[in-house]
Amino acid sequence: MTVPFPARRLRRLLTLAAALILGAAAAALPARAGETTTTLSDPQPGFDTPRQIILQLTTADAGEANSILWNAINLQKFYGMDNVEIAVIAYGQGMDMLYRDSPIAARIASQLKYGIEYVACGNTMETTGHSPDDLVAGVDWVQAGIAEIVERDLRGWITVAP
């Protein structure tokens, strides 16, 4: 009798193998002048102990919002996709970026496929006459974006307000 091998576990093993290969290759390369290594805190980020990071989105400026989206990608690249959970939580003017007509809607839809979570503020939608149907497909929503940040912080998430 064969036991099915979970896809998530296979992805983790492949990611670990790739990291070992890349790590060995990187160790053989000389460091760039002035470059230092970030010291990872314990517990080390891993599949069972991922870093949990909130990126706060409060701007209606597409350029600034794009920078926040790049921050999400850079965090995934640094820690590895299986070693970090990222939630972009929007409220206030930042909500303009999560609607289907946003100039960065396609980019948000793409990042959702890579496990980056987007959370919208219901209070802001109500105040501005929007509904959950106006959101980019796949974006979640809560009643109060700020309260969501507070509650996740209390559960150990780290909030970054770029």
Keyphrases for this structure?
single chain, 162 residues, alpha/beta, Hypothetical Protein Ychn, Chain: A, 5-stranded parallel β-sheet, 5 strands, TAT_signal, DsrEFH-like, signal, DsrE family protein
What's the topology here?
Elements: H1 7-28, E1 51-57, H2 62-79, E2 84-90, H3 105-112, E3 117-121, H4 122-128, E4 140-142, H5 145-154, E5 158-160
Parallel strand pairs: 1-2, 1-5, 2-3, 3-4
Mean pLDDT: 87
Share of residues in strands: 15-25%
What is the H/E string?
A: HEHEHEHEHE
Low-confidence runs of at least 5 consecutive residues = 13-29
Under CATH, the topology can be stated as Hypothetical Protein Ychn, Chain: A
Task: Count up the helices.
Answer: 5
* Overall morphology: globular
The CATH class is identified as Alpha Beta
Specify the biggest β-sheet: 5 strands, parallel
Overall helicity: 40-55%
Helix and strand composition category:
alpha/beta
Count of spatially separate domains: 1
Q: CATH superfamily membership, which one? A: DsrEFH-like
User: Could you say what the CATH architecture is?
Assistant: 3-Layer(aba) Sandwich
Strand count: 5
Tell me the radius of gyration.
18 Å
Q: End-to-end distance, in Å?
A: 52 Å
Strand adjacency order, main sheet: 4-3-2-1-5
